[in-house]
Design goal:
24% of the residues lie in helices and 37% in strands. With 173 residues, it is an alpha+beta fold. The protein has one domain: Thiol Ester Dehydrase, Chain A. The strands form three sheets. The protein has a five-stranded antiparallel sheet with strand order 4-6-7-8-5. Strands 1-2 form a two-stranded antiparallel ribbon.
Length: 173
């Protein structure tokens, strides 16, 4: 997939923006015995792996490039996922910075016998886009916001970034 570019007034390449909907991704898995603890619940590390995969799909779609996980700012386990249930992961880009982007992921479980669905996990994952030739960080297309929900998520992602950077560089207020 090629990125669309246009020239700015100062001669630098400017990437054309993409809507949040272009990054939205969904994946499903069934919980098998090898993925559970002795109580028949999906292992937390397995959930984290699935979250990283679903988030990476959204980041790849938006950036049109390779991405690497830079941080997980938040992961909240709300409800357990049981053996035999279906896990549904939904992800989308919340905000784009220069070479990085934050992706929000929501995880749901579905009991195949009863049809009951539960929100089990939420997470925010930051990725850095990587150039396929130089293997260095590359600029990410801007995010086009169209709904109030997208604007809210964009604003909240900025706050999380401030905290993340302050903690990383020891400048927390």
């Amino acid at each position: 997939m090629k990125r669309k570019k246009k020239e700015s007034e100062i001669g630098e390449a400017v990437l054309e923006g993409k809507p949040v909907s272009a990054s939205q991704s969904e994946m499903t898995e069934i919980v098998l015995p090898a993925q559970t603890n002795p109580l028949g619940k999906l292992l937390g590390g397995q959930v984290m792996h699935l979250v990283d995969m679903a988030a990476a799909m959204a980041a790849h779609r938006h950036s049109g490039s390779y991405v690497v996980t830079a941080s997980v700012d938040y992961i909240d386990f709300r409800n357990p996922v049981n053996l035999g249930e279906i896990v549904i992961l939904k992800s989308q880009v919340n905000r784009v910075f220069q070479t990085s982007l934050e992706v929000g992921v929501e995880v749901y479980s579905e009991n195949v016998l009863t049809g009951e669905k539960k929100h089990t996990t939420s997470a925010f994952v930051t990725f850095v886009a990587i150039d396929e030739h130089t293997r260095l960080p590359k600029h990410v297309p801007p995010l086009i916001l169209t709904t109030e929900e997208e604007k809210r998520r964009f604003h909240e992602a900025g706050k999380r970034r401030e905290v993340r950077l302050a903690l990383r560089y020891g400048k927390f207020k």
